[in-house]
Every structure is written in C-alpha cells, then in structure tokens.
Specification:
- This protein is α/β, with parallel strands linked by helices and 350 residues long.
- The chain has a domain of 138 residues: NAD(P)-binding Rossmann-like Domain (Rossmann fold, 3-Layer(aba) Sandwich), CATH 3.40.50.
- Helix content is 36%, strand content 15%.
- It has 11 helices and 12 strands.
- The strands form 3 sheets. Strands 1-12-8-7-5-6 form a 6-stranded parallel sheet.
- β10 and β11 form a beta hairpin.
- α2 runs parallel beside α11, α7 crosses α8 and α7 crosses α11.
- The longest helix is centred in the first third of the chain and has 23 residues.
- The protein starts with 9 loop residues before the first helix and ends in a 9-residue tail after the last helix.
- The structure holds NADP nicotinamide-adenine-dinucleotide phosphate.
C-alpha cells in the first residue's frame, strides 16, 4: 500500500480551518465594573464547539458518501472484556457515530479470549467490506500482548493510527491515520488561534497513542518540543519552560500551578476518575457522577493552575469530544479510500 494522497473531505478541511476565536494571549473582555462575582478565570479551550463544527462537516460527508456509494460506512468498536470506563467511552463514540449517520458496531469480546482468537476476530473485521474502520479499546486484558491488535489491524482500516505503517507515515510527514487524541490536542490549539510556530512546547507523556504523536504533530507545526516522562529528572524545571504544555500522563493533579510559568497555554489530555470530593473544582466543567460518587479530572490541578495559565482545556469537555469527532473524519476518509481501491459500489444484504 502506498501513502494515499486523498482529496480532503469537507470534514478534514474543517479540521484545518483558520482560527475562529481570538488567540489566548488576547486580553479577556473587560468585566462590567458594576458586576460582583468570582475573579475571571483563564480562557477555557472548550472542545465542544470545535467538535460540533467537525461533526457537522462529517455529517455532510456521510450523506454524500451514502449518495455516491449506496451504503453506510461502519466503525467497528472492539471491546475486550468488561472494563467500565472503557464501556462508557465507547458508548460516547457510538453516540457520536449515530449523530452523524455513521453506523457504529460494538463488537464485544469476552475477556477470556485467547490472543489467537482475538486476531481472528480482527481479521474478520478487516475482511468485512461494510466495516470501513476499526478501533480497539485499550487497555487489553493483561494476558494479551498489544501487538496482537497492532500487528493484525488492516492499516487501511486503522482509523486511530496505531499500526506501525500509520505511525511511520506520521513520523515521516506523510498523510496517514493520526492517533485521534494527539491530533485533537494539537487541533484545539490551532483552532483556538494559539500560535505554535517557534514556541517552546513541552509534552508530559511519551505513550505511542498520545504523548509521542502529540510531540511529532507539534513539531510539524514548527514548535520546539521537549518530551517528559516518568524518568524525567525535575519535571517542574521543564514544565516551567513551556509556553505550550500538553499533559498526558494519567495522574490526577500531576502538574500544579507552581510548576507553570504565567501565560502558558495548557492542553490537559488526562482523564482520571477520582472520588467526587477530590480534584478540580466544578468551575473547570468537571462533573460529579452523583450515583457513583466519582468525578472526572485531568492531569493538571485546575485549582492551582487557573491563576497562572492564559488558557486551558477543561476536563471533561476539552480533548475528549474533539477526539471522537476527528475519529469520524478518519472513518470517512478510510471509507472513501477503500472505495477507490475497489470501485464497484457495495450492496448491503439484510
Ligand atoms: N481525552 C482523550 O480523548 C484521551 C484519550 C486517550 C487517553 N487519554 C488520557 O490521557 C492520559 C494518558 O494516556 P496514555 O494512554 O498516553 O497513558 P500511558 O500509556 O499510561 O502513558 C502515560 C505516560 O505518562 C508518563 N508518566 C507517567 N507518570 C509520570 C510522571 N510522574 N511524570 C512524568 N511523566 C509521567 C509515562 O512515562 P513512561 O513512558 O516513562 O512510563 C507515559 O509515557 C490518561 O489519563 C488517559 O486516560 C485521554
């Protein structure tokens, strides 16, 4: 397979649209002097409006695709075992699919599955012409090596960019399927009008799905990038250098206000479930799950960071919705590319 130089869909064009909002460095609107209330916080880089714009374009592309090819593209969402947070996340993706007219197919596989059987299941999805894209929810049960999925998934259907082929394309600057979360982190900055070129960016986390690709994508935008990880000596020394900080470590409150320089723009990728009483205050958009007594917080301690940063993504409501929306742009591109490889329109049976 060669790198596909596909014409961008309208959704993809939407993802690189110029900033619709003023840069984070712009002064906040003047407060009404007669109003008494809490001190103004930092600019919140909300993912919701960006995701809505992307979804609207995807919906147009889906309608166009159905007219041209006569079937609805399907995203297969594979869940191995019963992991409650994963199940919640997958339900969100399936809902997003439904909103734009994409078929979301949840493929639930028992946690006791063998690696060979999981490989076979993914092979069936690879071979299914109605399935345009496949994502597999992580983490897998400990017994199953990650390579079971990564090595098996067809790169042409690898819409979350986990296959080495797509990782290679990204690293070498070709168009491929990007890991959607890392792409979302950078897309939020671009679409919020945050200048990246020539700026000092620090990424906390070096996983293959988030930290590493985020660093590569920031370099593509001509930022000067430092990557930190669990063996980094004196993390705060690095985070204080950042003009742009992307945090993807999976540790609630890892980065505090004392570790930041004034005016930094922060993308908090972390999603952590903590007891409802702990973590960031509600004004970052964090929601308590009344039933479970838990809440979602990021890796950045919002309470201490809010007075230091110029702008920050809320958790939840920042990176997450944009990730899902971008995933669907990938799905549409995959569907179109697959039609170009086999131009006969497919007919749905049943
Ligand atoms: N918003 C979304 O759509 C979305 C999607 C995916 C993931 N996430 C969230 O993003 C976070 C990261 O996910 P992931 O899959 O990248 O996690 P991961 O695979 O566990 O990687 C975590 C990274 O953080 C580094 N790290 C851990 N503790 C650290 C510390 N004390 N100081 C500095 N670096 C540290 C690790 O370093 P080592 O490499 O040295 O171990 C590793 O590179 C999680 O909270 C996850 O839930 C959000």
């Amino acid at each position: 397979m060669t790198p596909a130089a596909a014409k961008p869909t309208s959704a993809e064009a939407a993802t690189s649209a110029p900033a619709a909002t003023p840069p984070a460095t712009a002064p906040p609107p003047a407060a009404n002097p007669t109003t008494v209330g809490p001190a103004p916080g930092p600019r919140l880089l909300e993912g919701g409006p960006i995701a809505a714009t992307i979804r609207a374009s995807v919906a147009e592309d889906v309608a166009d695709f159905k007219r041209r090819f006569g079937f609805t593209p399907t995203l297969a969402v594979v869940l191995v075992g019963r992991d409650a947070p994963s199940a919640v996340y997958l339900q969100q993706i399936l809902r997003t699919c439904a909103r734009v007219g994409i078929e979301g197919r949840l493929v639930e596989i028992p946690g006791r599955v063998s690696a060979a059987a999981l490989r076979r299941q993914i092979g069936h999805l690879n071979a299914d012409p109605l399935v345009s894209g496949i994502i597999v929810q992580m983490p897998l049960p400990k017994r199953i090596p990650l390579s079971t999925v990564i090595d098996t998934i067809d790169p042409a259907k690898d819409v979350d960019g986990i296959h080495p082929f797509n990782a290679g394309l990204m690293t070498l600057g070709y168009e491929g399927f990007l890991p959607a979360t890392a792409q979302a982190a950078v897309e939020i900055l671009k679409r919020s009008g945050i200048p990246l070129e020539g700026r000092r960016a620090v990424v906390v986390g070096r996983s293959n799905v988030v930290g590493k690709p985020a660093a590569i994508l920031l370099m593509r935008e001509h930022a000067t990038v430092t990557v930190c990880h669990s063996r980094t000596a004196d993390l705060a020394r690095h985070t204080r250098e950042a003009e742009i900080l992307v945090v993807a470590a999976g540790h609630p409150g890892l980065v505090t206000g004392a570790m930041l320089s004034p005016g930094v723009v922060v993308v908090d990728v972390g999603i952590n479930v903590v007891p409802a009483g702990k973590g960031a205050p509600a004004d970052n958009g964090a929601q308590a799950d009344a039933a479970g007594g838990t809440r979602l917080v990021g890796d950045v301690d919002f309470a201490s960071a809010r007075d230091v940063v110029a702008a920050i993504t809320p958790v939840p409501g920042g990176v997450g919705p944009v990730t899902n929306a971008l995933l669907l742009t990938h799905l549409l591109r995959a569907a179109r590319q697959q039609q170009r490889r086999s131009p006969a329109p497919l007919r749905r049976i049943g």
